[in-house]
Amino acid sequence: MSKTNKIHETAIIEEDVTIGEGTTIWDGAHIRRGATLGRDCIVGEKSYVAYDVKIGDLCKINACVYICAGVTIANGVMVSAHTVFTNDSTPRATDSEVTALRSSAPDTSTRRTAVERGASIGANCTIAPGVTLGAWCMVGMGSVVTKDVPAHTLVRGNPARPVAVICACGAVVARPDATGDMPRGPHRCACGKVTP
Fold first, then answer.
1. How big is the chain by its Cα radius of gyration, in Å?
2. Greatest alpha-carbon span in the chain
């Protein structure tokens, strides 16, 4: 038996959008052309998913999230409310003569961002263009991510910095030593999983 999608009547779903079974899209969300959402996802109210964005299965995109073109989100990712992805390394509104608006279409200054399996991004985060958020990493709320985040790493702050090694369950399994270096793994969590 297939699951049905729940799409609020005020959501805007453009042409050529693929939505997996069991996915829910809440009020005021806008999904642009060519976007792909996997199965059993949630897209919160007033969130924006740009054209050609790829979102995997079992993802939670909370309220008021902005996901720009060039972002790929793997399975099992959590993006909390008011997170903003960026993709332009040289943003300008107009051409250099200020005679016309610059196109919003991807160009040579557009950078690709990847969010890998199981990653979590806290509320009110900003993700800079062209970074990779590793598998099972976690970004603390209000952080500004300007560099790649390694797998199983908790980062926080502005700019975001590593503060712990975390398990896939979310528990902290190691903290930096006195010199500020992260201890090498593997680390065994109380849940029984081993983190590399």
1. 18
2. 61
Q: Round to whole Å and give the CA distance between 73 and 118.
A: 10
Report DSSP letters for 34-54, one per residue. T-EE-TT-EE-TT-EE-TT-E
Distance of CA 139 to the CA centre of its chain: 10
**CA-to-CA distance for 173 and 50, rounded, in angstroms?**
36
Backbone angles phi, psi at 167, to 5 degrees: -80, 165
Strand 84-85 to 126-127 pairing = parallel
Q: Minimal CA–CA distance to 110: which of 76, 70, 147, 149?
A: 70
Q: Give the pLDDT confidence of 121-158 residue by residue, as tens digits.
A: 999 999 999 999 999 999 999 999 999 999 999 999 99
CA–CA distance, 156 with 139 (Å, rounded to integer): 6
pTM: 0.94
Angle value at C-alpha 174, between 172 and 179, nearest 5 degrees = 135
Q: Please give the Cα distance from 33 to 14 (Å, whole number).
A: 5
> Do 134 and 153 form a contact (C-beta atoms < 8 A)?
yes
Rounded-to-5 percentages of helix, strand, coil across the chain: 0, 35, 65
